[in-house]
C-alpha cells in the first residue's frame, strides 16, 4: 500500500495534532498522503471527503471515534477500499489503533504486517403500502424505534415468513456481527465475533416476561411489521447515520447483502480479550 487517504474528525483532533503526526509518519515510510479538501460541515461532511479521495487511495485511515469511522466506511465500502481507524473517542471497537500507536501502525502497514477482514453487511428495505419506499445498507445495525411520542410499538417479527414473536416494545435492533458491541449490546444482545456471518435481532425494552435476542443465519430473511393500529410515527435508523419515518402497516425486510466493508487489522489479539479490555479500561471523551 502506497497511497494513504486520511480522514479526520476535526472536532476530535483539535489543532490536527494526531493527523499531522500520521502524515509525517506515512511520508517517513515512503508513502503518499491523500488529503481531501477541508470542509466546514464537520463530521457531516466526512462522506463527501471520502468520495473525493477514494479513486486515488489504497487505504483510508480515519481519525475519530466509531461514529466517524462508520460515516467514512459507509462511503469507502462502495469503492472496495479498506479502512483503518485511529481512536480519538472513548470505546473504539472500530477505531482500534490508539493515539500512542500511530507510528507503529504505519510501520506495520508498510512492512505488510496486517490482514484485511471482510465484514458482513445487511440490507434494509422499507415498504409502505406494499411498495418499496427506501433501501439502504448497514455496517453496524438497523434500529426501529418509537418517535417522539411515548407510545409502545407493536412489532411482529418473521424469519423466512415464519412468525417468531409480536414484541410490544420500544423498538428492535437488527445488528451485524460488527454491530454486536454497539446498540445491540446495550439492549441486551450477545457479543459475537465480528467476522461471523449472522444477524442478531434484539428487542428494546420489551413488555413481556422474557427479552432474549434471537439469531438468524446469514441466508435467512427477517421481516419486521409495525402493527396496523399504530397511529404515530416510528423511526428507522441505519448505522446511526440515516433516518427514515414509518407508521402503522409499514414493514422492513432485512437480509445479508453481497456488499462487504474491508477493515485493516494490525493487532492479532483475541477479539474477546479486546472487548474485555475496552470495557475495563474505557476512557471518557
Automatic annotation (TrEMBL):
Cofactor field: a divalent metal cation
Name the enzyme group at the top EC level: transferase
Q: Where can this protein be found?
A: Cytoplasm
The record lists the catalysed reaction(s) as: NAD(+) + ATP = ADP + NADP(+) + H(+)
Molecular function per GO: ATP binding; metal ion binding; NAD binding; NAD+ kinase activity
GO biological process terms, alphabetically, are:
NAD+ metabolic process; NADP+ biosynthetic process
Write down any Gene Ontology CC term.
cytoplasm
EC number per UniProt: 2.7.1.23
- Specify the domain of life of the species encoding this protein: Bacteria
Provide the alphabetized UniProt keywords.
ATP-binding, Cytoplasm, Kinase, NAD, NADP, Nucleotide-binding, Transferase
Catalytic site positions: 66 (proton acceptor)
Task: Indicate which residues the UniProt annotation says bind NAD(+).
Answer: 66-67, 71, 140-141, 151, 170, 181-186, 241
**Family the entry assigns:** Belongs to the NAD kinase family.
Function, as annotated, reads: Involved in the regulation of the intracellular balance of NAD and NADP, and is a key enzyme in the biosynthesis of NADP. Catalyzes specifically the phosphorylation on 2'-hydroxyl of the adenosine moiety of NAD to yield NADP.
Task: Supply the name of the protein.
Answer: NAD kinase
- Species, as recorded: Ruminiclostridium herbifermentans
Q: Which gene encodes it?
A: nadK
